[in-house]
Amino acid sequence: MKVFIVYAHPEPKSLNAELLKFSVQVLKEDGHEVQVSDLYAMKWKAVADRDDFPWLSHDERLDYATASGEAFTLKKQLPEIEAEQEKLLWADFVIFQFPLWWYSMPAILKGWVERVYTYYFAYGIGEHGGERWGDRFGEGTLKGRKAMIVTTAGGREPHYRPRGVNGYMEDLLWPIQHGIFFYPGMDSLPAFTPFEVGHRTTPEEFEKIKFNYRERLLTLETTPIIQYRSQNGGDYDGQQVLKPGREGKGITGLAIHQINPRVKSYGGES
Predict the structure, then answer these.
(1) Cβ of 31: how many Cβ atoms within 10 Å?
(2) Are strands 187-188 and 93-99 parallel, antiparallel or unpaired?
(3) Which of 49, 57, 163, 186 shows the smallest number of beta carbons within 10 Å?
(4) Model pTM?
(5) What band does 199 get if pLDDT is binned at 50, 70 and 90?
């Protein structure tokens, strides 16, 4: 299997950096091919702006989506953007590894998505017209691939349960798992999320994290995916709204967009 890791952490001596090295070692020993985009080491430009289109006249109003689609179609993309797209197309499995900062990914990783997920590459795919809104959410350019989030959180695990003060972790990661992964066609595995990670993490605790991560890495091909409902699979009406009764009894919130969700309501875990 070909595994592409998009990694975002600024400190080469961090626990995250050690976890990255560990994952590459485990994957290669298990016979997989691995590519890594270390965004901080690459000094990745996080801002999506006019500089991404040097051929665009400065007198012309910038429509980033339109310009990115033109660049993709006419093969005028910057080399660094095209290179990352090629890695995505090369991969069978994609991992986003990052620390959870302010309930989301670091800005540099979000900037990677904004610049690499160009029009006609990651969105704007398929027939658009009438009640059909293209090939997305289960369809698209990246269909056939799987993806997974690996993120470290400083808070305790109960903080991220459905009734925890930080909010349910699956809801916090929804924009990535359902949006960035599933929107262009990739299936998402449940995230690997070590909690209470930081400078106070002991060597013994880190060894436990590595043990659990090894188990996940060695079962990437057999771990069940999150069963999101596909947009064009019949569960949604012509306005892309879930049809009445499809969610099942007692299922609320974002979980209605899953088949057999692990959390049926915010009253507790199933």
Answers:
(1) 7
(2) unpaired
(3) 57
(4) 0.94
(5) confident
